[in-house]
Specification:
- The chain is an alpha+beta fold.
- The protein has one domain.
- The chain is 44% helix and 21% strand.
- Helix 1 packs antiparallel against helix 2, helix 4 runs antiparallel to helix 8 and helix 11 runs antiparallel to helix 12.
- The longest helix is centred in the N-terminal third of the chain and has 28 residues.
């Protein structure tokens, strides 16, 4: 008997605000506009309203006029933060080759410069420590067979096994995040052709002609895919276990090694092939290739170090990032599919041809108690918002009704023993020129639409977004 293919529908991103769906910033702006209007009316009557008109009209308009899907006033914090960084020259980075980083510090720009690394002789893995966010991360290389070629029963089994992996991490209560990074590098097939030119028979016969024709066809749209999984430990939540293991980062490494062993077993059950926990040299290679796409970096015989693997130069712009030999743009997946979709709904995005990109999916498992508290808060806000709209005679939108039903469905799943997971996704597109980057971004946005997703450019936060979307460090931009 063939089982029906698994499908899923993502909950709509909450749009509730402080009052009547308006955020605190929009409510404050409207309050300022009304106050200016009232003062003008009280001071000089109608003429005062006219005189103060530009002030209250601009404030009110900024709360209602939208720009790229957001009210203009919502852009104010982003613009102010960006202006502050530009004035402080924080958007430019140049590596100081004469002043190397201290031992154990990663050579990354921006707020990622505080990251540290530690090599564990027992597991032979390199651990990344974030002292500000109090997390400890480790990276695992993965490989897998083509999901679409599996039988429906095997597909269902693998999806269920992956769900159990996330559920087990949620039950620990100490998992800060789990990041799946899928990097796609266009491959024209030159290495395969070179291997055949050196070792092929090159006979003048039918098999040789057919093989050469196959090589010529495979050079179009072929790509190399690289998958890593990053497991992050929340050192605050795991503080009792860390104290028992010896305190500090070394105690955190001991606690994380236990989660690593459990994760390995779960991933094998899900049908994934483990490539081993990444060492410092392997991580340094990934970082170097992300910042310098033209660099031919290999792990074999390499002595690459995370202390020197960062970029030589970075120039951050409002909507893209210039780094070493590449231009990159980071997109945030702002909306997931709101209809029933198959587990491979990201197929069009992942296999967009001839584009160098990285798809970063960050899952934050929530414990049952934490998830229920968050759901109760969201339900209270939804009921209060609906009550306020009813009092002023505003008709409740179907989107509000759908959001409330999604909350009830999530609560029912939690009560039934399932785990709750917060998802965020980022797509980093890299090209060798600014013009090529513009075309690649347009193609990726179209591919994301085919996958049922909505994307937005991370304006003013490209440098921070690049660390999240292109590097396997388990960080989050929000």
């Amino acid at each position: 008997m063939t089982s029906a293919p698994t499908s899923v529908r993502f909950a709509r991103r909450p749009t509730r605000g402080l009052l009547l769906g308006f955020s605190a910033l929009r409510c404050g702006t409207l309050g300022v506009a009304f106050s200016v209007l009232l003062i003008g009316l009280l001071v000089d009557g109608a003429w005062g309203v006219v005189v103060t008109g530009p002030l209250w009209a601009v404030a009110a308009a900024s709360a209602f006029v939208t720009r790229r899907g957001e009210p203009v006033v919502e852009w104010l914090p982003v613009v102010l933060h960006w202006s502050k960084r530009v004035s402080a020259k924080q958007t430019e980075y140049r590596a100081r080759v004469t002043r190397p980083r201290p031992a154990g510090m990663m050579a990354l720009p921006g707020d990622a410069a505080a990251l540290r690394f530690l090599n564990d002789p027992e597991s032979r893995a390199c651990f990344i420590h974030d002292p500000h966010r109090q997390t400890l991360s480790v990276v695992l290389a993965l490989s897998h067979s083509a999901y679409v070629l599996l039988a429906p029963s095997d597909q269902t089994q693998r999806v269920s096994a992956w769900g159990r992996v996330l559920a087990s991490l949620a039950q620990t209560g100490t998992c800060a995040a789990i990041q799946v990074l899928e990097t796609t590098i266009p491959d024209p097939g030159t290495k395969v052709a070179q291997w055949y030119n050196e070792r092929g028979t090159h006979k003048d016969d039918w098999p040789n002609a057919q093989y050469q024709e196959l090589l010529a066809q495979s050079s179009f749209g072929s790509s190399t895919h690289r998958t890593t999984l990053t497991l992050s430990l929340d050192m605050k939540k795991a503080a009792p276990a860390i104290r028992a293991a010896g305190r500090g980062v070394k105690g955190g490494v001991h606690v994380l090694r236990i989660d690593m062993a459990v994760l390995e077993q779960g991933l094998r059950t899900a049908g994934l092939r483990l490539g081993g926990w990444q060492s410092e040299t392997q991580l340094a290679t990934l970082v170097r290739q992300a910042y310098d796409p033209c660099a031919e970096v290999t792990v074999a015989g390499s002595r690459a170090s995370l202390s020197t693997a960062g970029p030589m130069a970075v120039s951050e712009h409002w909507s893209f990032l210039r780094h070493d030999s590449g231009y990159s743009c980071v997109l945030w997946i702002s909306e997931w599919p709101r209809i029933e979709v198959a587990p491979n709904f990201l197929h069009a995005l992942v296999f967009a041809s001839d584009i160098r990109k990285s798809l970063s999916l960050i899952a934050r498992p929530l414990g049952t108690a934490e998830a229920l508290r968050a759901l109760r808060k969201e339900k209270t806000e939804a009921i209060t918002d609906a009550s306020h709209k009813a009092k002023v005679g505003q008709v409740q939108d179907l989107s509000d009704v759908q959001e409330y039903h999604d909350l009830l469905a999530r609560e029912q799943a939690l009560i039934g023993g399932h785990a709750d997971v917060e998802f965020s996704g980022f797509v980093t597109i890299t090209s060798h020129s600014e013009e090529g980057l513009t075309q690649a971004v347009a193609l990726i946005e179209r591919a994301a639409g085919q996958s049922g997703c909505e994307t937005r450019v991370l304006y003013g936060r490209q440098s921070q977004g690049f660390v999240v979307g292109a590097l396997p460090l388990g960080r989050s931009v929000f």
